[in-house]
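Q: Is it fine to ask for two folds in a single conversation?
A: Yes, each is treated on its own. Send the first.
Q: Here.
A: Result:
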Amino acid sequence: MTTGTDWQLTRTFTSSSGDVCWDRLGQPGRPPVVLLHGTPFSSFVWRAVARSLARDHRVFVWDMPGYGTSEKAEGQDVSLAAQGRVFTELLSHWGLAEPLVVAHDFGGAVALRAHLLHGVGYRALALVDPVALAPWGSPFFRLVREHADVFERLPPTLHAALVREYVTSASAPGLHPAVLDRLVEPWLDDPGQAAFYRQIAQAEQRYTDEIQGRYAGIDIPTLVCWGEDDTWIPVAKGRELAALVPGARFESIAGAGHLVQEDGPAELTAALIAFFRLPR
């Protein structure tokens, strides 16, 4: 696991769903890579991978609206549909025509929607334990989605305990206490508590149902990477997804759970670098 907790986004973009915090690493002129996080996480989970990739790439990282250090507001649209639009806006803002894209969990659906529905081009796409195939959502996730208004009223101490237990379950070997603290911190103040349940309430499967039938038409190099010990989305879903995308490569990471970036950052980085170096 990786334990470094120094991570800060220094730039802001005003999107159609609120202000987005973002940053970039690496030298200008190098091949661009964009990293998308999942839920309930932020760009923080990519810190080790991003710094490694920045040796040979220009790496772009961002916190989606409603996540991490980006804007959290009452009534905010943080659905997969909104995030796909925001990602499209960001790529235009950055001036990136066909970047390499690496997307985890919920971010996988965001990247797929941007490509399949908004016509965004990628040089290659790596999907890491993505939300992509129905049915999805753990029993806990579905329970919270159905009763988000009730959970939002939990006392702060109970809410904090729930979030910590939920995030902890994404890792197979367990998270360093300092890392766990950073992962849950954005959700613990009043705006964060409301935002945590807002994003779950808006996480509807129909947004992946809209695109699942289009996976066979993906014609860019694609890697599907999965933690073998993922208890949130079983590794069998990864093999199923790879079989649906023409020519997709599948690679599993031993000993890693859903949070592959935390459980196996070196192994994941090696898989990504090897994929990026394949002839196009």
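Q: Second one now.
A: Result:
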Amino acid sequence: MDNLLNIVTGISLFISFFLAFFMLTVKTKHKTSNYLFAFFLIITAIDTSEPLISQITNGPSNLGMFRAMLCFLQIPTFYLYVLSVCYSDFKWKPKYFIHLLPYLVANLVLLPRFYLVDVDSKLDFIINRQNMIELQINHWLLHLQIVFYFTAAFLVLRKSKKLYLENNSGGSLNSYQWLFQFISVLATLYLIVILKNILKFSDYPYISDWIKIGILMLQPFITCWYLYKALNNPGLFRNIDSKLKLVSDLILEDKKIEPETLNEDLLKLKQYMTDEKPFLNPDLKIQDISKEIDVPVRELSVLINHQLGQHFYDFVNTYRIENAMKILKDTSKSKVTILEILYEVGFNSKSSFNTAFKKQTGNTPTEYRKAV
């Protein structure tokens, strides 16, 4: 079993460091995101390298404990990565150093009875680890950190997706779904880690060891899955400005908007959409329409997302689908493919076109063409 565990750990380390090297060297304008994820991969790989390191070390050491405490940097780094992917204007700020606090606290707790003592005392500390209050404190601190940061990551993703729907019409939501899947997989993995740590201080420590082996065997598969997804979604989305506000917040700020103003703006909006057909632009944003019809973005956003009861994303897609329906009904264009139609009306992916079309008509584009 030890040999198998060493082989799996070695493969996992190779894949993690290879992907980290790729993220650090690939040419892209999103360097901060790549650096953050590369750092996450590296510290995770170092943290899970214990089976191999134990083969070449003679006993407990300060360096070994520092390695073990790197787990406190993993989730904060991943959270910052999620922020950098969701928001196009993400930049490193000094305030982000506050995320080092759990790591510093975890090490300070170990200072008196581990870092500052001799080797024999360190060995005694490890042997009696189940009774050491310092390790119990650190385990509970790690558990709280995992719950806090993954909750924060899900909240960031939910808010950025909503902002995207309220301000953008282009692209696809597949990237959000993929990132949601990835966060969910990691959250599940870390919840299993919590279970492992709880069992470590129970009467069933051997179960904790088996869970640890399972995690080490899963890690290379998860890393490969991420690599596959990353290579197939190199741009992700990064369409949201973090300074944007949700419509619900704008309504609270504005308190009251004159009905006459809303009616005038609505007429201007509908006239512009019908005459100029801006929806044919696959990258159309609410700011583009605001500029053309001379209506402030705040008022236009409230009008569409609140008064009309539609996200801007759905509002624009309604016009695109209506245009696509006209083409599908036209017998003279029966040889025009679905793919050609979706690009012609402003979509840029087949999946988003099919989803929007079925949502509005109840049929897929192919079914609709056959029915008419």
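Q: Anything structural to flag on that second result?
A: Two points. The longest helix spans residues 133-167. Residues 2-232 form a domain with the Rhopdopsin 7-helix transmembrane proteins fold (CATH 1.20.1070).
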